[in-house]
């Protein structure tokens, strides 16, 4: 009964938004949804459901089906209470997010419990009953919405999870026999089976129970030993790295045909069922960035530089010929995917072809061209229509593809060596060093050959320190081999350390002030009362960003990336602090960048100066430069794609949350928040960002392996270093 109550509650939760939105959309009073907020409220629970669903499996396996049936009610109890007492829109959003998480967490307990307690002859009928209770829950919520307010409906709904928890407490929900046997509780398992079969005796369930015992014993012990057909007494897998052990077990349990076949069936079935009603198209930059790493590793840096232009070519054509709004949306989505896919080829290529002495400057040149592109689009927007701008833009990817075709873009020597193409690698290095001779690059090429040979062969054999001649890993299941390689390459400290650095660096840079306000920059400048026309200020921001990129190219070699990164972050923190103090002292509480009627009439040069300074310091950040050089070759492209994807995710979060920060804490609070991020970023970079300027890629990789130390060597940081 308790699992059915969970489904009743689940049905009421997924349909709750339907009765709330009509009452609150543009309603009078403080508790009101805008159109955007209503759309978020209606979809938020679906966004958070996957997180709960992924948590539900480990929860059920750890605490058992019975306890899980109790615990999964807690998010919904909290959510219904928040809904009833909701005093503002964020409270409703938190409540709806908890409903989504709780709904997701319910999945495994319900399905596991019903599947494991049922006899085969009635399992289909019992599983169908669960869908019946889900439908009843949806109907009940629609009915409540027609007779009571949404607040009363929320407080009525809370009775469902409480009743479910009560049934568990009083013992009306026994744990499943299979799980009890897996915990070695044979007597409790027999007692549970007797209860579930109608309070019968042990003799009546003896045959079924014996089958369960045999099945349970086949699941005992170390799953890795079972897979390797080793004796349990020889097991040494508990000495493995916790992540490696987890993913090895994951490969064995989740990537076997007994799991993959039914998982494929259910996922495709769900896809066809859901998509038969509505097909949403919503691609984004992070997805393209995640694809870029595997693409670069598979086809090489040169071919990838050609292929990544294709989405943009199609996008610009669609933009020019756009005949309706959906066409524009598809074109913009392709621009996002193409932008994401470009990340790994750009960063990998520049990082691998550059000499250590000029790598920093060359990586900064990429940001200069990015700034030129932004400025060029602003300029085109002021002199031609957007359709003409789109057709002009198509010349850029075509030019890039042409340069690849005519051979002006050689592949990187490191990648060519990894493919066994030593002659091509030497030819490429000579070309990249200024059409020089092989003798002039012999020393550098020999170092690359040694480095490349250390990367040759089967990565699994390399990790296990086995001879290549004994390799049998190509006979492994393709998914298992992929995840085993993933563990070795992506979850090693040489990858995880720099990946943590770049992801946190991106987080602090994005959340340090300028990026979140860009979509609404014109109004933000007006809301501060800056002493110039807001549109002129936006143009100047583009010019200053361009100038900052040029300055960085000139000073990065002498100053170093570490000092530049820390200084720019701390400078952003100071600027945000001053803007926050100015807003608190000089702007009325009613001022909002989203309401032009509240803009101050008095103008001041103070916020203008510090906004320009914030632009300068943001332009001095070297996050993208670091991304291009800190990863080892084996994981470079994929890790760079992951880091770039994270940057876009944080940009989305920052842009999306600015309106909420300003609404609840005004401009002063919003910029105080950004200042806090920047101060934290300054501290983090001081302690954890190494100086990579002038270092070879091999030296940087060795540092992250722990063999070299290239941290700044000042007296303060030495206090925190481990004594050798």
From TrEMBL:
Instruction: Tell me where it resides.
Output: Membrane
Query: Which Gene Ontology cellular-component terms appear in the entry?
Result: membrane
Q: Which domain of life is it from?
A: Eukaryota
Q: Which UniProt keywords apply?
A: Membrane, Signal, Transmembrane, Transmembrane helix
Record keyword Transmembrane present: yes
**Which parts pass through the membrane?**
41-63, 93-110, 122-144, 150-173, 263-281, 358-380, 386-409, 499-517, 537-556, 568-585, 605-627, 665-687
Which Pfam families does the record associate with it? Sugar_tr
Q: How does it sit in the membrane?
A: Multi-pass membrane protein
Q: Which residues form the Major facilitator superfamily (MFS) profile domain?
A: 237-693
Annotated InterPro entries = MFS_dom, MFS_sugar_transport-like, MFS_trans_sf, MFS_Trehalose_Transporter, Sugar_transporter_CS
Q: Does the keyword Transmembrane helix apply?
A: yes
Molecular function as annotated in GO: transmembrane transporter activity
Q: Where is the signal peptide?
A: 1-17
For this entry, the protein name equals: Major facilitator superfamily (MFS) profile domain-containing protein
**Native source organism of the sequence:** Heliothis virescens (Tobacco budworm moth)
């Amino acid at each position: 009964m308790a699992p059915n109550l969970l489904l009743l509650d689940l049905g009421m939760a997924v349909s709750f938004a339907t009765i709330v939105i009509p009452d609150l959309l543009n309603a009078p009073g403080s508790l009101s949804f805008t159109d955007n907020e209503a759309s978020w409220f209606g979809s938020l629970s679906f966004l958070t459901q996957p997180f709960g669903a992924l948590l539900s499996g480990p929860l059920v396996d750890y605490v058992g089906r019975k306890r899980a049936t109790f615990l999964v009610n807690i998010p919904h109890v909290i959510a219904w209470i928040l809904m009833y007492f909701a005093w503002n829109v964020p409270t409703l959003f938190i409540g709806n997010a908890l409903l989504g998480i709780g709904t997701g967490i319910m999945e495994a307990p319900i399905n596991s419990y019903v599947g494991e307690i049922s006899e085969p002859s009635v399992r289909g009928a019992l599983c169908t009953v669960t869908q019946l209770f889900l439908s009843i829950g949806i109907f009940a919520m629609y009915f409540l919405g027609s007779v009571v307010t949404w607040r009363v409906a929320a407080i009525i709904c809370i009775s469902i999870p409480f009743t479910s928890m009560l049934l568990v407490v009083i013992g009306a929900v026994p744990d499943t026999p299979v799980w009890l046997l897996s915990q070695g509780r044979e007597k409790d398992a027999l007692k549970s089976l007797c209860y579930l079969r109608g309070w019968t005796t042990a003799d009546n369930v003896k045959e079924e129970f014996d089958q369960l015992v045999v099945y349970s014993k086949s699941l005992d012990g170390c799953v890795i030993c079972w897979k390797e057909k080793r004796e349990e007494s020889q097991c040494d897998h508990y000495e493995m790295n916790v992540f490696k052990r987890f993913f090895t077990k994951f490969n064995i349990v989740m990537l076997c045909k007994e799991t993959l076949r039914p998982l494929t069936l259910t996922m495709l079935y769900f896809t066809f069922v859901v998509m038969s009603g509505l097909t949403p198209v919503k691609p984004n930059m992070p997805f393209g960035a995640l694809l870029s790493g595997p693409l670069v590793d598979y086809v090489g840096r040169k071919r990838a530089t050609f292929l990544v232009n294709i989405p943009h070519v199609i996008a610009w054509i669609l933009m020019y010929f756009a005949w309706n709004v959906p066409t524009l949306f598809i074109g913009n989505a392709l621009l996002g995917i193409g932008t994401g896919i470009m990340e790994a080829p750009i960063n990998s290529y520049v990082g691998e072809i550059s000499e250590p002495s000029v790598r920093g400057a060359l990586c900064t040149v990429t940001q200069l061209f990015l700034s030129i592109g932004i400025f060029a689009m602003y300029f085109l927007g002021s002199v031609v229509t957007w359709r003409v701008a789109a057709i002009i833009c198509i010349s850029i990817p075509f030019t890039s593809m042409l340069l690849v075709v005519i051979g002006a873009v050689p592949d990187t020597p490191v990648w060519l060596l990894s493919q066994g193409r030593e002659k091509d690698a030497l030819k490429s290095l000579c070309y990249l060093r200024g059409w020089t001779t092989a003798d002039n690059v012999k020393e550098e090429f020999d170092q690359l050959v040694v480095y490349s040979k250390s990367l040759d062969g089967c990565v699994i054999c390399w990790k296990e320190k086995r001879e290549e001649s004994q390799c049998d890993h190509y006979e492994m299941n393709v998914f298992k081999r992929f995840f085993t390689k993933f563990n070795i390459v992506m979850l090693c400290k040489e990858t995880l350390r720099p990946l943590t650095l770049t992801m946190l660096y991106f987080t602090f840079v994005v959340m340090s002030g300028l990026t979140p306000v860009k979509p609404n920059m014109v109004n933000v400048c007006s809301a501060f009362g800056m002493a110039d026309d807001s549109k002129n200020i936006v143009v100047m921001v583009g010019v200053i960003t361009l100038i900052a990129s040029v300055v960085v190219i000139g000073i990065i070699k002498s100053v170093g990336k570490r000092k530049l990164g820390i200084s720019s972050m701390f400078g952003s923190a100071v600027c945000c602090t001053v803007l926050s103090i100015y807003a608190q002292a000089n702007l009325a509480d009613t001022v909002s960048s989203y309401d032009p009627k509240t803009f101050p009439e008095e103008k001041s040069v103070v916020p203008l100066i510090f906004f320009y300074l914030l632009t300068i310091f943001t332009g001095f950040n070297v996050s993208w430069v670091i991304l291009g050089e800190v990863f080892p070759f084996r994981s470079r492209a994929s890790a760079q794609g992951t880091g770039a994807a994270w940057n876009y995710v944080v940009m989305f979060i920052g842009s999306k949350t600015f309106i909420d920060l300003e609404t609840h804490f005004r401009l002063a609070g919003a910029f105080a928040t950004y200042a806090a991020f920047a101060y934290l970023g300054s501290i983090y970079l001081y302690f954890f960002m190494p100086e990579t300027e002038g270092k070879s890629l091999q030296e940087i990789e060795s540092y992250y392996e722990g063999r070299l130390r290239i941290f700044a060597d000042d007296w303060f940081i030495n206090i925190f270093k481990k004594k050798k």
